[in-house]
Amino acid sequence: xxxxxxxxxxxxxxxxxxxxxxxxxxxxxxxxxxxxxxxxxxxxxxxxxxxxxxxxxxxxxxxxxxxxxxxxxxxxxxxxxxxxxxxxxxxxxxxxxxxxxxxxxxxxxxxxxxxxxxxxxxxxxxxxxxxxxxxxxxxxxxxxxxxxxxxxxxxxxxxxxxxxxxxxxxxxxxxxxxxxxxxxxxxxxxxxxxxxxxxxxxxxxxxxxxxxxxxxxxxxxxxxxxxxxxxxxxxxxxxxxxxxxxxxxxxxxxxxxxxxxxxxxxxxxxxxxxxxxxxxxxxxxxxxxxxxxxxxxxxxxxxxxxxxxxxxxxxxxxxxxxxxx
Length: 325
Description:
By secondary structure, this protein is mainly β. 1% of the residues lie in helices and 53% in strands. The strands form 7 sheets. The protein has a 4-stranded antiparallel β-sheet with strand order 4-5-6-7, with no helix packed on it. It is globular.
């Protein structure tokens, strides 16, 4: 919620002192919970909904919530460093970042009410962890994992079972049949997910939008160059999508920004390529659903530049106009 700001005040030795809420419009400040606990955790996080506080210790994490923010769940996870909740707060995942032959539980999906593990994964990098996420509906979670021959595969799992989703054509539970996925991101209002395929060795780079329920696909434009990595942002109404591509074109790495108008009801997509005012190494942060403004960052000499653009439409295509630097 862009109106309210929730934050925790930290004291000496990383001890959480109180949980606070500020109404930005009314400029009113209130204390939600004082004296959260007596311990000094390794890290402190707040769920996206603001309903829960997560205190991360060396080999476990504690979840506080309810009207009086009391301790609700304690979970054991060796070396845990990140906890992410689903949108409806019914599930969460924990990740420890450890790559070890002694553990196969780098990433764990949990059910909140039972505090039980739904599924565990052994993943091999921070980049791979970033591709695990819950759908907007909290009916699914997705991840790009390694197959037996070490190639990446995209798997989408049902919640709360943790089973692979069914292919409606065969009736069998299976991975998503797509070559060399490197990036995926759920839409904000639907069970659609953007999937990008690429990499140095991939001969068929592609981007698609997949409907997880019936596995129908909307395909992007055809690519004649290699896609190395991808970042993107959906608008809050799912009708606009901006994608940043790092691509290898004639042995040179270039940054390309795509803007797409999406009409799911007609299974159609209209793509514009922004070539003006866009620097290399930009990362899409956020699209405003009403104003069609978007924000890019540029990392340069250990400094972060922030740029705000607006999209201008002409003859069924878009261009980016710089508003603020």
